């Protein structure tokens, strides 16, 4: 239930900044870590993913991409997620999550969600996602524009690892 409530609050706050930035921007979202987010005193691992999802919604609204997606019947599906924990985030800490699309190819957009408490980086969630219209994958460039960079090496290694898991006899 806390994930749904957080998403609703995030959507409400983001609507006040609708289309305030472009899809090539890094967007900062702010959260307070509540008792619903923690085990005893630290942010639970699954809550990193819930916060990342709220940040994706915030990103889509603040960039205005949500309008095109709703108009054209496009949704997004997370194909894979990768988390890196650095330092614990404590109960009642304020957290800033910097969200950016770090790469997009013909099928996927790769989001980076970097977690900060104060000025100290605490973790990162990488999300490989697809835009979908029914069963059809919508190329990200149709929504985001043409990519101008090459795929970073760490994303290629992640994709190679996913491919090896999917094809164990490789």
From TrEMBL:
Highest taxon listed in the record's lineage: Bacteria
Gene3D superfamilies to which the protein is assigned, alphabetical: Hotdog Thioesterase
InterPro entries: HotDog_dom_sf (IPR029069), THEM6_lcsJ_thioesterase (IPR051490)
Protein name, entry field: Thioesterase
Species name: Undibacterium terreum
Lineage start: Bacteria, Pseudomonadati, Pseudomonadota, Betaproteobacteria, Burkholderiales
